[in-house]
Amino acid sequence: xxxxxxxxxxxxxxxxxxxxxxxxxxxxxxxxxxxxxxxxxxxxxxxxxxxxxxxxxxxxxxxxxxxxxxxxxxxxxxxxxxxxxxxxxxxxxxxxxxxxxxxxxxxxxxxxxxxxxxxxxxxxxxxxxxxxxxxxxxxxxxxxxxxxxxxxxxxxxxxxxxxxxxxxxxxxxxxxxxxxxxxxxxxxxxxxxxxxxxxxxxxxxxxxxxxxxxxxxxxxxxxxxxxxxxxxxxxxxxxxxxxxxxxxxxxxxxxxxxxxxxxxxxxxxxxxxxxxxxxxxxxxxxxxxxxxxxxxxxxxxxxxxxxxxxxxxxxxxxxxxxxxxxxxxxxxxxxxxxxxxxxxxxxxxxxxxxxxxxxxxxxxx
Amino acid sequence: xxxxxxxxxxxxxxxxxxxxxxxxxxxxxxxxxxxxxxxxxxxxxxxxxxxxxxxxxxxxxxxxxxxxxxxxxxxxxxxxxxxxxxxxxxxxxxxxxxxxxxxxxxxxxxxxxxxxxxxxxxxxxxxxxxxxxxxxxxxxxxxxxxxxxxxxxxxxxxxxxxxxxxxxxxxxxxxxxxxxxxxxxxxxxxxxxxxxxxxxxxxxxxxxxxxxxxxxxxxxxxxxxxxxxxxxxxxxxxxxxxxxxxxxxxxxxxxxxxxxxxxxxxxxxxxxxxxxxxxxxxxxxxxx
Lengths: 365, 288
Prior knowledge:
The complex is a heterodimer.
Chain A: E1 4-13, E2 16-26, E3 31-35, H1 42-50, E4 57-62, E5 65-66, E6 77-80, H2 92-103, H3 107-121, H4 136-149, E7 154-158, H5 166-183, E8 186-191, H6 194-200, E9 203-208, E10 211-216, H7 218-223, H8 228-233, E11 240-247, E12 250-253, E13 258-260, E14 274-279, E15 284-286, E16 299-311, E17 315-322, E18 325-332, E19 342-348, E20 353-356
Parallel strand pairs in A: 3-8, 3-9, 6-7, 7-8
Antiparallel strand pairs in A: 1-2, 1-4, 4-5, 9-10, 11-12, 11-14, 12-13, 14-20, 15-19, 16-17, 16-19, 17-18
Chain B: H1 3-39, H2 44-48, H3 62-67, H4 78-109, H5 115-125, H6 134-144, H7 150-175, H8 178-186, H9 191-220, H10 223-228, H11 237-240, H12 252-273
Helix pairs in contact in B: 4-7, 4-9, 5-7, 7-9, 8-9, 9-12
């Protein structure tokens, strides 16, 4: 088991920078998720930790040992690939035992460890099959089994669930969480799916264009996004984000509509400031149908026309027109609504976010 | 008769027609081979008869017996030729496949300066007909003193085969997902081990086909060999066929018998190797 620490880690291909000097401390047994849109450098970062990609600068430290130039096999890590990368010419048993065979383990030791891994993942029935005879979920399990057998310091997962269908993905997500509880090792998990990151990770690292935007617990990145990018990336449906100008204690939007400036930001802004106002669909809701109906401290109510609704059974997403554009809101205990209806909407301004239009940074702190 | 019955009948009729068609096509393809085998077993009169005699009247193994009877009794040094052919073909195939594997792997896996130019250059060498090279090659070899040697023939055949083996093996390595070698390295392999344990077994069908093609090219090559070989030191079987031509006559029967002797090892080898030619071995490695 080991800590992982990245110091000013950089990756360049020629003149093109991919990862721009990131710093990250990962505690022993921590489950860290790297998320971000494609091309943000998260997979490259993982591959650098694995040793599959040379680093252009900085340091990678695993368990107190700098591993910058060590080959993958000397880092005591294991990795689950997006494509599973099972060896097609070997049976499941041979796939699981491959790393032990290469390490020259004794036969009975090998059998015992393969049996352990196969018991954890329920692969006993499949040991003599070849990868081509397995379903997607089974292959995924074998790939995880192959990682467990090595008993590594650090598990690396590179978008392991993105090839599975939605139902299987949810199921495997639970399995990965159980697995982490069982094997208790450090996990670095790359995904572009924020739900996976939120549900699995102890801490989430949100990356964009080779930089770290924010590192925090799922609750932190959700409730207190540090930047406009994080605010828009985490949460589904995404936060409503609209540019506005501060004027006379109000936020004036480009279309002319305005909202009161939330109290907590009064001291942090001055007239004429360009800002981005953000409010989650949970904090902007048809009056009486919100999460915290009744207990709000700073609510602004307006009547708005409904432009479209998306019923989800237990809730309905209501798109209401404000300032000339659609703002998405979450309606709990839904009532039937139709386009064109005018309904009372509540902005819970105490839970709103404000970002600098220039830097994108949150004005909360 | 209802619709289903007539559909069934049509399907059967089509199956029969399909099989008959296939049989005729195969017959056409096999005819030269069959003709050679038949001709090696019957007298020259029958071979040269016009109109052709389709059904042999008398068959004998005389030509084969004569072939091995030694010089002066109608024989030719067939064992020497066979040995030369075998040494030259096997060595040059082994070398061409080894270089083809290294080159094919490099082209499939690495990025380097001038890669596409080099690849194109290799392919362009295939556009020059071998026989056009025979005279220049003869001069160079004469100067180097390697005419009529195994070494000279092996060198020529290696050069002849490398572009093809590189091209074919490159294609097969491209089909082996890169993730597999990376997974193997994480599992504790060195780069070298990852190649032999994972990538090589998966590209084996391609390497086997490259080997067969290279071997057959060497085994059957005539144009270069007829220029660069002189004596039993290095003459190969195809060149040996010329031993059956005299100033005024050609012993067609003997020639056909030698051709059969040539075909048998090639056929056997192809048969043995073909089980390695099973494609689709990589399925299941990655999603799919």
